[in-house]
Sequence to fold (900 residues):
Amino acid sequence: MKRHLAVAAALLTFSVGARAATSVHLTVGQDHAAVGESFQVEVSALSDSDDNPTNARLHVSPGLSVQGPNISTSQQISFTNGHFERRRGIEVTWIVTGTKPGRFTVGPATVDVGNASLQSDAVTIEVVAGGFLQRNRGFDPSNPFDPFGLLRRMPNFPGLDDLEAQAGGRPSAPDEYTAAHAADPMAFVRATVTPTHAVVGQEVRLRIYAYGSRGPFDEINSSEPSRADFLSQVVVDSSYRQPRYVVPIDGTDWSVVKLREVAIFPLHSGVLKVGSMKVGMRGPGYPEDGPLQGLVRYSPELSVVVTDPPLAGRPPGYELGDVGNFNLSANVDPRRIDAGDAVSVKIRVEGSGNLPHTVKLPEQNGVDWPAPTTKEAITPTSSAVTGWRDFNYVVRIENPGNVDLGEVTLPFYDPAAARYRVARVRLGNVEVAPSQKAAVTPNAAAAASAAKDPLDGLGPPRKQLGTMTASERHLTDTRSFWLLVAFGPLSVLGLRGVVELSRRARRRFESRARSTSTLVKKALAEARTAASAKNVGPVAGALERAVYASVEARLGLKGRATLRDRLRGELVLRGADDELAKDIVTVLDDCDRLRFAEGTGLGPSELVTLATSVVARLDRARPPSRDRAA
Amino acid sequence: MKPAVLASLAFLLLVAFGSVARADSNEALFSEAVAAMDRGAIDDSIDRFELLADRGFSHPDASYDRALAYVKRAQSSRAKAGDLGRAAAAFSEAVLARPNDADAERGLDRVRQEIVRRRARGSAKDVDVRPSLGRAIIGVLDENTWAWLAIVGSVALSIGLVLRLFVASPNARLTGAVAASLGALVFFVATGMTFAARKDRLDYRPAVVVVEEARLLDDNGVTINGPGSIVPEGAEVEVGERRGTLAHVEWGTLDGFLSLGQLRLLAVTR
Fold:
């Protein structure tokens, strides 16, 4: 881990002339370095005179190489003892690299102010052989006023990260930096929330890390992840002072740094979102997506499933959001007062989690607890948000006697134990002597105010739960209501429909009964009946009707109006095959014979059979085409 | 006896005793809350009444006492913002559960008057506004009355149709046509109103504003400006759709979104 050990080397104050109030500070970012490892040396020279410090020089021992300086102007304004004080000067930065092991002196730095030269103190730094010393960077490349950020951009200026890489040391990264897979071959941002399921008010840790496969990088032009549904306590607000590690992912070495760590407390239940964070990654191996943008990457959106703490076991007075692990302590002073006077009660809530904003007070008649003043100290650490909050009450006690102030309680939900707990502290007794003051009695004062308060006279509270009025039943909640409402009209209309349908069916049946095919079938049936009864006359008549009706229906030829001699030809012309035409003529001829010359043709039964066959074949006959008919 | 039967019996006993214990616990908690109010421990009393409400225990007397506790705190030096709004909500809940509770109605009126007085601007109409036209028409009759009218319309329509469609006599057919027309009118209007009243009952829930002022937001969560865009403490609104922490509310003829934290939803029997 990088350390940023600021060594304030010197504060030189001069009492005369231009040097009367000029100070020169020398600061070195670390007290140890490895051979080849660079570190920065900063000198701040401020003067309240009109002469600006100039011509900064740095003296170093042999064994150290110096690059730079980078100089920027500086101005400091302070308000002291009722008047403003303005100081101007310069900030000078050098990059110093140890070239061999040993203890070396850095400084003093010298600046010229007017005609005089001022020096800072010197510091000693130890350069060790080999290895990589983890340290804080001590500068922010994303800061345009940071000289190193600019120096790194200079041509041929050695990158510190390159030097780190050359040093070859590699501290092991904590497990939280480990990523299972790389989301991008060059760079990606990973975000986690722990835990992912929480109750309202429970601390959840949001951590965001940046990974780069092309060596070290710096954070630039980032935006914060949105978290509107959470209360936040920032633990890490920038990657500036965060350690850099190298971790293997998918067989490749990745540089990783923690960008943010925030303790977030859900404000309500639901699936709550944490927005993505935009990160610009700037480094020698990373192409920029735009001027001063760096290589832009986004963290994934995250969600936390938040529920209310369980209702089972919830103590009275539990305030939603009071989640953590807390203790109560109290101090009451003085313990002896006169009636009508007040005691100071200080209650401290201490612990980890979402520190409650209220405690449950032991109210009673004659003891007035006005609103408290509060004081707090909350410290987010790497593991939890801890701290305390003081509630200071000035409690007025009206009634004389040995008054037991009772017990202050704080119900809270302990997520680690997954149950409610109640922190308690007893306040003890206060000896209240009868008051010597002639005061208006409380009852008289209350009576005086009662006349003015429109809310008085509402009556006493109800001591018992009375009988409940049976809740109104709604007709519409039963399905039978809708059936009942719809049934009447629909059933009438349905009945009418049924009647109409049956009427239509009867008509259709009658119409069908009158159709040709029905007539033919009926005639054939009559013929069969007559044949059975050996009644030849009706057989002939019925068969003629059947055959003529079929011919007319199928071939469109009115057979009765056609001469028998020409009938066969006409039938063929109309689409009947010759065999069928011949049979039709045969049936008709035999019918004549049957009627007028019995015994010369087919018998009645045979004739019925032939006629039935003819009718069946006529049913299959196709009507003539127009050409053929013509 | 078979183990399965024994296990079933044990389960039934557990369920029975569990529900009895829960009922006892609610009544005990109510008594503790009343006792706390008597000894001047108003916060403690409110905590216990609120725990009852959190448990889903709804009773007009518990709501009434909760309202009194909030009124007492509002009158004390430990008054908190929204106490009167919460008192109004509790009184409203008591009136909803027991419509003939005159004390609760009087308490509700007084709390609303006090809210208006403390706001020292506007009039009582600021808290109590006229409902929208649709809600006013639906509210002319009770849902069950609309339902009975729908049944009457249905019967009249049916008889009219029978006469018109199945009877040959011209007089009967004329009577049928008239009855069917009137019946159809009543049937369709009353059925529509019944449906709307039912939907209103099921889709909307009454709530009371429990902050000093609640500003209506539009669909995009932007504050609506203009007259009537601020809903005062104690105002009763109808809560419909919910989007996360926001709830769509109708307040008189106005509508918009309010944060659920600004509202106290009333316990009502559906």
